[in-house]
Write a structure and sequence with these properties.
By secondary structure, this protein is of the alpha+beta class. 62% of the residues lie in helices and 6% in strands. It has 23 helices and seven strands. It has a five-stranded mixed beta sheet with strand order 4-5-3-6-7, sandwiched between helices. Strands 1-2 form a two-stranded antiparallel ribbon.
Length: 613
């Protein structure tokens, strides 16, 4: 059979068959009295009405339907047979009114409800629950029945999503439980409320519950629309109507996490309107605002068919998130957009240098080792300014082997001088760490010359090497100065220096590119490092390089808690830990550098310091 070729369809078929077998086996097919038919029709009608008016919950707009509340209330009051009759009538009416829904969904829903209702009924009776009235003595059976109903629902729905979307078991069920647990259990508890109302007067109690649920639906719907309206205002740029800078970053964090988890490509674009200041000077800010509005509309129209997220990044800068998009597809899209922008007439653009509206754009692709969105945006920003530097009206892809915008940053010498001034704070507290940092810095200078690093990466590695241990300023003096092995709680505090180092340099925007090196230089290639236990290429490249340099100097420098290794012994240790603690890609090149420096007599003169840490 063609239908059973996929795993998903096999699963749907299996559940459907089990549900129908359970229904045919258990259902009594008896003739109901008029009063019973009135209850069945009333319950099925109430479910149908409330399914059309679910309670919509902010912030994501998840729907909360009362059908499970009615099914369970019916189960507790009237038993399994009548409840299955309600389900059958409701399913037929629902299929008739919702003919646009594909047939297999109706069958699957009916079958899964049969299994959930039947399972809950037998669990309820087996745990001592009694049908016919609501009583405090049934509290435990009610709770167990609710829980089993919820678990079965999560299993049926979760398994379908796992098979259909090829997602992991853990991620699907974690998301389902997080999203559904609280609202779903609320609807189950409402079944007791309905059962209590119907205990006094069946039809009036059901009518009262349905009215309350309907009014709640209207109230929550208004509340959700208001919430959505306020949220959109908070997340939108007032001038262009696009996403604003802050919301763009929130979306980017989510998209980067999803791209890494699913190993899918993702590109980010930053683009800047060329000569916009000149346009403002010529025509004034009001016309400039109109130009921004029209250009924003142009980008949005082009991006919507591709499901790209567009935002106004600030001023005349815009940004685009391109999920599931390679660099090749991104640059093709951006060049088409650039040409369309050139060909679209805007009032007064003929007086601009190109005689038309143009922009310069930079594209950066998210990689597995991308540390955070700041690093990704920094790369896109560098590529954008490279396009500007080369004459504007261009689109550039970030290339780690290219040198970008030396004019836009302070000279390396000046930045090193500023970093060393901050580092001198160690002198009053920890002479060893200061001197260790200076040696690691020198190794980084030498090693960066041998590696295929861009000017930006080389500068970042050298600066990061100089201040990588700056967080130790927060370590208590008695721990820093302790001779001998640290106690477990002292070691835990010592490990926090990477987190404290991140917090210290985060206060200086010029040093934000160094955060991965300061925070992650104790991560291990095998995933057994700290603070996050990152593994392999998920650790940024420069942090993996710094880990080797830092460890080599630590091994070859005498300290109270560790015997000094010779350079030869340290080289043996590097090789032994290659692929475990260290990235094997950089171990041998570093060893070759050490041997070369040793042969030429240029190795650092490491003092035999028996000083405090």
């Amino acid at each position: 059979m063609q239908f059973l070729k996929t795993t998903t369809n096999k699963y749907l078929f299996l559940v459907s068959v089990l549900g129908f077998i359970a229904f045919i086996t258990i259902y009594d097919f008896k003739i109901y009295s008029n009063s019973e038919w009135s209850i069945i029709i009333a319950l099925a009608g109430a479910i149908l009405l409330l399914n059309h008016h679910p309670i919509v919950l902010p912030p994501k707009g998840n729907s909360l339907s009362m059908d499970s509340s009615i099914f369970l209330a019916s189960l507790f009051l009237f038993g399994l047979d009548l409840t299955l009759a309600v389900l059958l009538i409701n399913s037929i009416l629902f299929a008739f009114t919702q003919r646009k829904i594909v047939w297999w969904k109706h069958i699957f829903n009916f079958s899964s409800y049969v299994l959930m209702i039947t399972g809950s009924f037998y669990i309820f009776t087996l745990t001592g629950g009694s049908i016919g009235s609501i009583h405090i003595n049934n509290s435990v059976p009610y709770l167990i029945s609710f829980s089993s109903y919820f678990v079965m629902n999560v299993i049926f729905v979760g398994t379908f999503f796992i098979l259909a979307a090829a997602e992991s078991f853990e991620s699907v069920f974690k998301e389902l439980i997080k999203e559904a647990l609280s609202p779903y259990l609320s609807t189950l508890m409402l079944s007791l409320v309905l059962a209590i109302l119907m205990s006094s007067d069946r039809i009036f109690g059901l009518f009262l519950f349905t009215c309350i649920a309907f009014l709640l639906s209207l109230a929550f719907k208004q509340h959700f629309h208001l919430f959505k309206e306020v949220s959109e205002k908070a997340n939108k740029d007032f001038l262009t109507g696009l996403n604003n800078h802050g919301y763009f970053k929130e979306i980017l964090v989510e998209e980067v996490a999803a791209a890494k988890e699913n190993e899918q490509p993702l590109c980010v674009v930053l683009l800047d309107i060329d000569d916009f200041k000149k346009y403002n000077d010529l025509y004034g800010h009001i016309e400039g605002d109109h130009l921004l509005q029209e250009f924003g509309s142009l980008i949005k129209t082009a991006a919507e068919p591709e499901n790209f997220t567009v935002a106004r990044y600030g001023g005349e800068e815009f940004s685009i998130i391109m999920p599931n998009t390679t660099c090749q597809k991104a640059i093709s899209f951006m060049n088409e957009l650039r040409k369309k922008t050139n060909d679209t007439y805007y009032k007064g653009v003929e007086r601009l240098p190109y005689g038309c509206l143009s922009f310069s754009a930079g594209i950066a692709e998210c990689e597995k080792e991308t540390y955070n969105i700041s690093e990704l945006l920094s790369k896109a920003d560098q590529a954008m300014y490279a396009a500007k530097d080369q004459g504007k009206n261009l689109v550039h892809i970030y290339n780690q082997y290219s040198e970008y915008s030396a004019q836009r940053s302070l000279s390396l010498e000046k930045e090193l001088e500023e970093a060393e001034q901050q580092l001198r704070i160690f002198l009053s507290k920890d002479v060893y760490t200061y001197r260790h940092s200076k040696r690691v810095y020198q190794y980084a200078v030498d090693f960066s010359r041998l590696l295929s690093l861009s000017d930006y990466e080389r500068k970042t590695l050298i600066l990061g090497a100089l201040i990588h241990d700056i967080g130790k300023i927060e370590i208590p003096r008695d721990i820093l100065n302790k001779k001998g092995k640290l106690e477990p709680h002292e070691w835990e505090m010592m490990k926090k220096h990477v987190t404290w180092g991140r917090e210290i340099i985060s206060t200086n925007k010029k040093l934000e590119d160094l955060i991965p090196l300061v925070e992650l230089h104790h991560e291990r290639y095998d995933g057994n490092g700290y603070p996050y236990g990152l593994k392999g290429k998920s650790i940024p490249k420069l942090a993996r390089i710094l880990c080797i340099i830092d460890s080599f100097d630590a091994m070859t420098t005498e300290r109270p808690y560790q015997k000094t290794k010779t350079f030869g012994e340290a080289i043996v240790e590097l090789r032994a830990c290659s692929g475990k603690q260290f990235d094997p890609q950089f171990v041998e090149p570093f060893i070759a550098m050490i041997k070369q420096l040793d042969d030429t007599g240029e190795l650092l003169q490491v003092e035999s310091l028996v000083v405090n840490r």
